[in-house]
Amino acid sequence: MSAARTHLRTAGVAVRSMLLLTAVLGVGYPLVITGIGQVALPNQANGSTVSVDGETIGSRLIGQSFSDADGNPLPEWFQPRPSAAGDGYDAGASSGSNLGPENPDLIAAIEERRAEIADVNGVDPEEVPADAVTASSSGVDPHISPEYALLQVPRVAAERGLTEAGVRSVVEANIQDRDLGYLGERTVNVLRLNVALAAMGG
Amino acid sequence: MEILFVVLQLGTLALILALLYRPLGEYMARIYTSKKHLAVERGFYRLIGVDSATEQTWQAYMRGVLWFSGIGVVVLYLLQRFQAVLPYSLGLPAVPEGLSFNTAASFVTNTNWQSYSPELTLGYTVQMAGLAVQNFVSAAVGIAVAIALVRGIARSRAATIGNFWVDLTRGTLRLLLPISVLSALVLLAGGVIQNFNGFTEITTLSGGAQTLPGGPVASQEAIKNLGTNGGGFFNVNASHPFENPTAWTSLLQIVLMLMIPFSLPRTFGRLVGDDRQGYAILAVMATFYMASALILTSLERAGIGTAPELAGGALEGKEQRFGIFASTLFGATSTLTSTGAVNSMHDSYTALGGMIPMLNMMLGEIAPGGVGSGLYGLLILAIIAVFVAGLLVGRTPEYLGKKIGPTQITLASLYILVMPILVLTGTALSFAIPGIRDDVESTSIWNPGNHGLSEVLYAFTSASNNNGSAFAGLTANTPWLNTALGLAVLFGRFIPIVFVLALAGSFAIQDKVPVTAGTMPTHRPLFAGLLVGVTLIVTALTFFPVLTLGPLAEGLL
Q: Are the C-beta atoms of residues B315 and B324 closer than 8 Å to each other?
C-alpha cells in the first residue's frame, strides 16, 4: 500500500470513529444522565430551587444580592460576601475578582469594605471576618461564615423590630457543619437564612 | 483543630486511593491485555473498518493517534463555527475563528484551556457533542500512549506495540464511560445540575432580578475530572455551586482526578511482570503529591501578602464552603494532574502560594500527572535517572531489562526539552516583540507589576503542559494568545507523544538483557530517591530564573 493510501485509510477510520463516538459519548451519555436525573433526582437536576408562596425565588446553591437598585445593601437582610460576578451575584456571568495579593485595587477594596461593614453593624473593624471583605471564587457563593452571620444579628434585629435573641436563634439554626464533620468549612446559607427571617415577620 | 481537619481530609483521600490502587490498576491491565472483544466493540470495529486482531508498528500506532486527534480538532472547530444553526445553542452566535481554533486544540490535547467564558459563548450542543466527547477520547488517547510505551518495555524482539483503535475503544467503553456514568449520578445527587432549561429569569427574595443558568453539567463534570481534562461548564469552573455544590463533591472530584493516574503504576507493574516496579513509581508520585499539597496549604494558611493580611486570611477567590484546605487540595491536585479545573482562583492566591501550582506543572505533571501522560512522563524521567546512575558507576544503563542506548537517551532528552522550550519561548516572545508586548500589557494582563508577568508565565506553563488552569485575570481571547497558546497545547501534547511512541518501538524490538549482579535495581528506595532528585533538577530548576521575575519577586521583596 502506498503511503498516501495508508494515510487515507487511517483518516477514514478516524472520521468514522469520531462520528460514532460522538453519538455515544456526546449524545447518548448526557441524555441518559439527564433522563435519570429528571426522573430520580428532579430537584437537584433542576438547580435545587427555593420557593416562597409557590414562586421560585432562587436556588439554595446560588447566592443572590440583597441590595437596592443602586447596589446599596438593604440593612434589613443578612448580607452575602462581596461578589465579582457582573454587578454582583450575576448568575449569568460567574466570576472571581482575580485580583492578586498586592493589587492596589484589592487592598483599597478590602479597607473600604471593612470600614463600611464595621460602620453599618456598629462593631470594631477588627471584628469583621475575612469572608466578609473578600470576593468569592464564583461570584455566586451562597454562604457566609457563622461569624459574619452572627455579627449582623443586632443590625438586622433592629431594622426589623425583632429581638436579637430571636434573630440569633434563626442564625444558629442555619449554621451548617462541615461535611462529615471535617470537610470544608462551617457555613450559613444566606438565602435560606433570609427566607427563615422573612417568615418571622417584623 | 484545623490541622486535624487537614490530616483527616488527606487521610480520607489517601485511603480511598489506596483501596482503588490494586483493583483499578489490575482492571486496567486486563483491559489492555485481554484477547477478548465485547460484542459492542466488535460491532464498533466493523463500523469503523478496523481489523482488531492486527497489531501495529509504532509508526502505524502514531498515525492513528495523530489522524484521530487531527480529525478531532477539525470536528470541534466546525461545531463551534456552526453553533448558530445547532440545536440548544441558547441563541448564541458562531464562535470566532481564532477562539474556535484555540478551544478545539485545547480540548483535543486534554488541556481544556478556556479563553472564553462558557456561559456567554457555548450552547449545549457544542458542550456535549464537542467538548465532552473530547474529554473522553483525549483521555483515552493519553492512556493508550502510556500503555503502548509499557508494552514496548515489556516485550522483546517485537515489531508491534498494540492496536491504537482497540486501545482507544476499550479505554473509552470499558474504563471511562462506566465510571463517568456512576460518578455523574453521585454528583447529581449532591446537587450538580443536569437539565436543558437554558437561562431562567427569577425574582429574588428581596425583589431583584436574577438569571439562573441551566445545562447538562453533571455528565460533563464527571468526565472532566476523571479524564484530567478540567474544562468548566461555567466560567468559574468547579467553584461554581452548580458544578461543585459542597465539600464532599469537591473531594469526590479530587478522587476522580487522581484515581486513574495513581492506579496506572499498578497497571505498569502488572504489564512488566513486577508489581514492585509499580510501587517505586507510585512512591515517587505520592512523595511529590504530599509535599506539594502540604506546602500549598501551609502557604495559603499563612496568608502572607498585603491584601490577605489586611483581610485577615487568604480568602479572596475562595468559596466559604471550601475554605482554605478544600481549595488548596483541589488546586494542588488539579495542577499535579493535567486537569486544570479550579475550585478557587489561583490568580488571587498569595504570591508564593500561587507559585506552587506553577511549579506543579513545571515538574512536567508527573505526580501523578494526567491520565496516561503522567505515567509516560515519569517513565521518561526514570530513563534519565537510570542513565545518570549508569554514568556515576560506569555501567551501561538498563531499565527493566532494556538497554538505554543513544537512541533511547536521545528520545528521552528531546521529550524533556519540548515543554521548557515552549513555556520559556512563549513567555519571552510575549514581552520581546514590541507590538505584541503592548497588546499583552494593555489588553491581556490584569494585575500590575510582577504579578502580571506571572499571569503570562502561568498561561504558557499551563498550555505547554496541557493543564488548562489559569491565573484567570489574564484576558487570553486575543489574536496573539489564542494563536500562541493554541500552538503551545498542540506542540506540548503531540511532539512528546511522537517521542514516546518512537521509544516504545525502539524498546519493543530489543531483546531483554538478563538481570545480573551489576544490574541496578529500580524498585528500591534508593532508585525512587534518585528519581525524585533527577525530576527536581531536570524540570523545576530550569524555571528558577523566570520564577524569580514573577512570584518570587512578588512574594519575597
A: yes
